[in-house]
Write a structure and sequence with these properties.
Blueprint: E1 7-11, H1 15-25, E2 29-35, E3 42-47, E4 55-59, H2 61-64, H3 67-74, E5 83-86, H4 90-99, E6 103-111, E7 114-120, E8 126-132
Parallel strand pairs: 1-4, 5-8
Antiparallel strand pairs: 2-3, 3-4, 6-7, 7-8
Pfam family, one: Glyoxalase
Protein name: VOC family protein
InterPro entries: Glyas_Bleomycin-R_OHBP_Dase, Glyas_Fos-R_dOase_dom, VOC_core
Length: 135
């Protein structure tokens, strides 16, 4: 029986710049950065501080895949489905993201169920940061 989701993959163009964006601009923690052999791909995962049950995998298709499969996956960079993130201080997170130079598509807005904002990563993938109302 399927029990839980543990990883979601984000396709990236460059391992180092993706890792720097997620750790430096978003404040995520690096969970894993392992070479899969000499000159081979790297297994890189990150997650928000304190989250131990879920990780984003930063995967460079050019190093992991070959031929048409690599080309198809590379074409999905910046086109992946929106990921929803949880916040306990959306106004503070907005200021931090803006100061870090993160592209904000939609600033903080009030909604019936709470507040949210939408931003993009360095490749154009969209993220919805949400702060739910208490209760």
């Amino acid at each position: 029986m399927i029990r839980r989701v543990t990883h979601v993959t984000i396709y990236v163009k460059n391992d180092d710049e993706a890792l720097a964006f997620f750790t430096g601009k978003l404040g995520f923690q690096k969970k894993m950065d392992s070479s899969m052999g000499p000159g081979g791909p790297r297994w890189i995962t990150v997650s928000p501080p304190g989250q131990s049950d879920f990780e984003l995998t930063l995967l460079n298709p050019a190093t992991w895949l070959k031929g048409e499969e690599a080309s198809l996956a590379s074409g999905q960079i910046g086109q992946q489905p929106m990921i929803i993130l949880d916040s306990d201080d959306i106004d503070g997170d907005y200021r931090t993201l803006k100061a870090a130079g993160v592209t904000i598509d939609l600033g903080v807005r009030d909604l019936p169920w709470g507040r949210d904002l939408i931003f993009r990563d360095l490749y154009g993938n969209r993220y919805n940061l949400v702060q739910s109302k208490p209760g």
